[in-house]
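Budget justification aside, the reviewers requested a transparent look at the raw inputs and outputs of the sequence design task funded under Objective 1. We therefore reproduce one unedited record. The lines immediately below are the structure tokens for a 507-residue chain.
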């Protein structure tokens, strides 16, 4: 009997250890770093010519250092604030702080001093920010309040506030939601719920595959309301992170969308953003029954995407353009990782059901040149651009984006299977930095009725974002060619193609 008990205890200890260690295994795989400097790593804003190999020219990147999830996005007084997971001291994951950039048009960004750095409660993990115009928290009218995870021995939720949108003061009574039991308890996303006159927080429970909802009248005192999870196995292949609950309109009625990033277990492999559609009554989210998982993006490189707060009737999301499968080794220096293009979300009807569509925000017009018809293989372009292709989806065919070095990204339109297949092979450019990076079949459904598909493709130095024109399908993929693809080739395919240049946002 005793022996059984020992065995039982041993199993319990081992499985607790397994839970703890799988919690952050993706982080453990990142290289170890020296401790943070005296000034907390805030320092000066680094500078860059933004002209290094692979440097994105229409996507936000910090001048230098590691970046992951977008955090705390809030729109205040005509300024879009973008905070993000940032290591002020190196090009690897670690010393997690909130980097900061601002924009008045979501397209051209200005890097700002680091906003939040670690303290005795731990690193500053992901979270959100709200504009507290009615001073519910008592930090002052019209303050920006950031709600983030303090990641130390445990993950707990904390507050910091800012009256100038630049410098933050941490709340003296942090944490606001203490925790000493849950291994994964993070990424608070907060919004104001008018009907209940409460702030609502969505909080991810990682390997428990659950999102908890909490409420508060003042951002400081929180009550747990409910928990959402699903027993659909393919929604639960990895830990749940970075939730966002969105109030949306669908055919004149209100619908709620719960965004949940999942890693691993994305649409191809590694990281991905799934969503659920349903209702929220101020306490509980109940999902309607659909064929879950539903994916916001079918590519490899759109993760941890969440939306801006305080944007009135617009729902604008930005994602981290990378994948935990290989994020730590993508071959860029002195920075690592970019954000996706910002996207406007809408619930549209497809196949008689709601579908969360994402299209690049209309502000892209501010850097777009004139449309031209493509009349030759050469696109006569040397910088980033948008390509619009009209393709017959009743027969199989292939188009490729290529450069003069003979590198190309092949996209196969498979009428037979109804799929668009991106072939990220050794032909695309550098792939040797990670064995799980090259993937020859990154597939998405067309999500298009009729015989034709219109694709809007945004090509930058190290990424290709493909959308159907109404955003019913998106595929975001990194690529590392020697130079930007500036040729369009086809095999067994006739297409109509137009192109317009997009200005380098750093010039
Ligand atoms: C998602 C994530 C979050 C966490 C952050 C840490 O990519 O794992 O859950 O807060 O990254 O950097």
């Amino acid at each position: 009997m005793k022996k059984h008990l020992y065995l039982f205890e041993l199993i319990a200890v081992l499985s607790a250890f397994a839970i703890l260690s799988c919690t952050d295994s993706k982080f453990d795989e990142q290289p170890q770093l020296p401790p943070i400097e005296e000034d907390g790593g805030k320092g000066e804003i680094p500078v860059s010519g933004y002209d290094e190999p692979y440097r994105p020219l229409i996507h936000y990147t910090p001048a230098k250092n590691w970046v992951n999830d977008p955090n705390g996005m809030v729109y205040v007084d005509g300024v879009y604030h973008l905070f993000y997971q940032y290591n002020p001291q190196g090009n690897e994951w670690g010393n997690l702080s909130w980097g900061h950039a601002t924009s008045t048009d979501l397209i051209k960004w200005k890097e700002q001093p680091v906003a939040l750095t670690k303290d005795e409660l731990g690193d500053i993990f992901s979270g959100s920010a709200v504009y507290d115009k009615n001073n519910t928290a008592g930090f002052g009218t019209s303050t920006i309040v950031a709600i983030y995870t303090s990641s130390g021995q445990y993950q707990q939720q904390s507050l910091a506030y800012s009256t100038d949108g630049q410098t933050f003061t941490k709340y003296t009574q942090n944490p606001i939601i203490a925790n000493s039991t849950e291994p994964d308890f993070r990424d608070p996303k907060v919004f104001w719920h008018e009907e209940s006159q409460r702030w609502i927080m969505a909080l991810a429970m990682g390997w428990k595959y659950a999102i908890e909802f909490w409420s508060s009248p003042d951002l400081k005192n929180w009550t747990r309301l409910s928990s959402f999870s699903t027993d659909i196995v393919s929604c639960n292949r990895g830990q749940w992170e970075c939730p966002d609950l969105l109030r949306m309109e669908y055919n004149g009625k209100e619908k709620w969308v719960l965004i949940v990033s999942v890693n691993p277990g994305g649409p191809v492999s590694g990281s991905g953003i799934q969503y659920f559609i349903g209702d929220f009554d101020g306490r509980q989210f109940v999902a309607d029954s659909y064929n879950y998982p539903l994916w916001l993006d079918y590519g490899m490189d759109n993760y941890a995407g969440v939306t801006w707060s305080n944007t009135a009737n617009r729902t604008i999301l930005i994602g981290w353009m990378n994948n935990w499968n290989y994020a730590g080794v993508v071959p860029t220096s002195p920075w690592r990782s970019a954000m996706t293009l910002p996207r406007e979300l809408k619930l549209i009807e497809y196949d008689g059901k709601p579908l969360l569509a994402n299209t690049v925000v209309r502000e892209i017009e501010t850097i777009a040149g004139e449309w031209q018809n493509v009349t030759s293989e050469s696109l006569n372009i040397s910088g980033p651009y948008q390509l619009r292709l009209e393709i017959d989806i009743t027969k199989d065919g292939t188009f490729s984006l290529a450069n003069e070095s003979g590198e190309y990204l092949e996209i196969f339109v498979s009428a037979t299977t109804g799929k668009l297949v991106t072939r990220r092979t050794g032909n695309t450019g550098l792939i040797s930095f990670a064995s799980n990076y090259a993937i020859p079949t990154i597939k998405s459904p067309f999500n298009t009725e009729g015989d034709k598909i219109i694709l809007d493709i945004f090509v930058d130095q190290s990424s290709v974002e493909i959308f159907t024109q109404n955003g019913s399908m998106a595929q975001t993929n990194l690529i590392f060619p020697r130079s930007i693809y500036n040729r369009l080739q086809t095999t067994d395919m006739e297409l109509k193609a137009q192109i317009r240049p997009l200005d380098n946002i750093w010039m």
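The longest helix spans residues 2-23. Residues 7 and 13 are 10 Å apart (CA to CA). Computational costs for records of this kind are itemized in the attached budget.
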